[in-house]
Amino acid sequence: MYSILGIDTVGPLGSIAILVDGALVAGAPLPPGGHSNGLAAAAEIVAREAGVGLADLNGIAVSGGPGSFTGLRIGFAWAKGVAVAADVSLVVVSTHEAAAHAAGDVDGLRITVTPGERKELALAVWAAAAADDEPTTRPRSIIAPHSVPEWEAADAAAALAAGRPYTAIPTNEALAAFLASDGVPHCAPRPLAGSVARLGALLLREGPAADVASATPIYGREPNARKPAP
Predict the structure, then answer these.
(1) What local confidence, expressed as pLDDT, does residue 38 receive?
(2) Which domain holds residue 127?
(3) In the chain, which stretches have pLDDT less than 70?
(4) Are strands 3-8 and 59-63 parallel, antiparallel or unpaired?
(5) Helix 193-206 crosses helix 95-102 at what angle (to 10 degrees)?
(6) What is the CATH number of the domain that holds 177?
(7) In this predicted structure, what is the pLDDT of residue 218?
(8) How far apart are CA 186 and CA 189, in angstroms?
């Protein structure tokens, strides 16, 4: 039995899921604003439903951002702790790739949208080939994530799509509301833990696991708290 635990804590729509022998067998949302005290309990529940002990996992896949500073730190701290305690492999999955994978049912180009630097959004473009819709296939990246000012998001998305049909894939409700107000075609945010688990399994089979000590999130922006100027 080959099992991967997927964790996504990058935003309010946090979730956790377990993949066993290529099939998602259990999953649960994380309470909004309660990732820190809800993650361990949710992991125990989904592990019990899947019939897998945390020490028996083949790997833990964690969403690596960009996203919330606090959410990312919670996910990484918990995943690293379990990986070390249970001697389990750790793999970090791009939030953009997880969002593109989760939207495999969307026709046309997929433009994933995550929070960027202050008053900026990070956009990435993904192909919509039929193979991308298969859960065992990684989405094909066309344009890597890059940041644009919020007020240029609609024009930037259209330019990146270059006249082709596209759908924006926001990673949280606030981004979805912003895109709607700007007239950008989009789908509703969706839980990402299942896609994180699937992509984590593929990454672990393609190459080595992440180094637990040095693995860090991609925050996508500078922290709000700054050291005072000397």
Answers:
(1) 75
(2) 96-181
(3) 33-37, 129-136, 220-230
(4) parallel
(5) 110
(6) 3.30.420.200
(7) 78
(8) 9
